[in-house]
Write a structure and sequence with these properties.
295 residues; mainly alpha; MetI-like fold; 71% helix; flat
Length: 295
């Protein structure tokens, strides 16, 4: 069917708008990547946009020369995989429970969970609680406290409530337990929301570094990749403020600035997530729009 002139103009405006939107979205990431491969002192002049003005890999050499980097990477991978699996399991079970409209005291329980989204005990009570639970200086401190996120539970609960209730009722009539109903009926139909929550939990586990400093007392065995990168960045900042150290680095030909190190660390931590995202994109979009269309 031949398009009218108005339709062609409308399509052209859409293409231009999407191209501009895509450029505005992608350019900050590209600019960070480009700056990370630029000489530190030269980068301080600014005006670096699409390619390095003075190519240098010193920032990446400084990061990858860190002896504990490989072990820290393994710790981050382990916490991301285990934390995502446990978080997904706990979120699915709790969301399925709260989606049951016949649950006793359901409104009160929902209020209790939502209340924690706006009010919390704070950092000190969290620290004391984790220490009482013997999670301090333990790998489980990365996994157990983050197993449940109220926001994730509410998103998944909403998705479960949109499913036809007759499916679960027929499974119960056939004698299936609630766990069997969840595993065999509900979860196979919930791929979009499962992928969405898995991606959210995975990104949180991969990018978090603050708990490494708070709950591991600087243990090298429990150091995560992000914790090591933050340590390198802080050391670079300290060196840049020490005139003698800065002069020594300049004489050796190594010119590093905190900004270039920061760009390199952002690139290293972002690339793995960007490689995973395309495989989950269609499910991610579907999961985020859950409940947007009714009827």
């Amino acid at each position: 069917m031949k398009k009218s002139a108005g339709e062609r103009v409308f399509d052209g405006i859409n293409y231009v708008f999407l191209l501009v939107l895509g450029f505005v979205t992608a350019f900050p990431f590209w600019n960070i990547f480009v700056n990370s491969f630029n000489d530190g002192r030269d980068a301080m002049r600014g005006s670096i946009y699409f390619w390095p003005r003075k190519f240098s890999v010193e920032a990446y050499r400084a990061i990858f020369n860190e002896s504990s980097l490989m072990h820290a990477t393994n710790v981050s991978i382990a916490r991301t995989v285990l934390g995502t699996l446990l978080g997904l399991l706990c979120t699915a079970i709790l969301a399925y429970l709260l989606s049951n409209r016949e649950l006793v005291f359901r409104r009160g329980i929902l209020f209790f969970f939502v209340f924690t989204m706006y009010f919390s005990g704070g950092l000190i009570p969290d620290f004391m609680l984790l220490k009482k639970l013997h999670l301090y200086n333990s790998f489980l401190v990365y996994i157990v406290p983050t197993a449940i996120s109220v926001w994730n539970v509410m998103v998944m609960r909403q998705f479960f409530e949109e499913l036809p209730p007759s499916l679960a009722e027929s499974a119960r009539i056939d004698g299936a337990s609630e766990l069997r109903t969840l595993r065999s009926i509900i979860l196979p139909m919930s791929t979009p929301v499962l992928a969405t929550i898995a991606l959210m939990i995975g990104v949180q586990q991969w990018t978090t570094w603050f708990d490494t400093y708070m709950y591991t007392s600087g243990s090298k065995e429990l150091a995560t990749l992000q914790g090591v990168l933050v340590k390198i960045l802080m050391e670079t900042q300290i060196q840049s403020m020490d005139p003698q150290q800065a002069s020594r680095l300049e004489q050796s030909g190594t010119i590093l600035t905190p900004e270039v190190i920061k760009m390199a660390t952002i690139t290293i931590t972002t690339v793995p997530i960007m490689m995973v995202y395309p495989f989950l994109q269609k499910y991610f979009v579907g999961g985020l729009t859950v409940g947007a269309v009714k009827g």
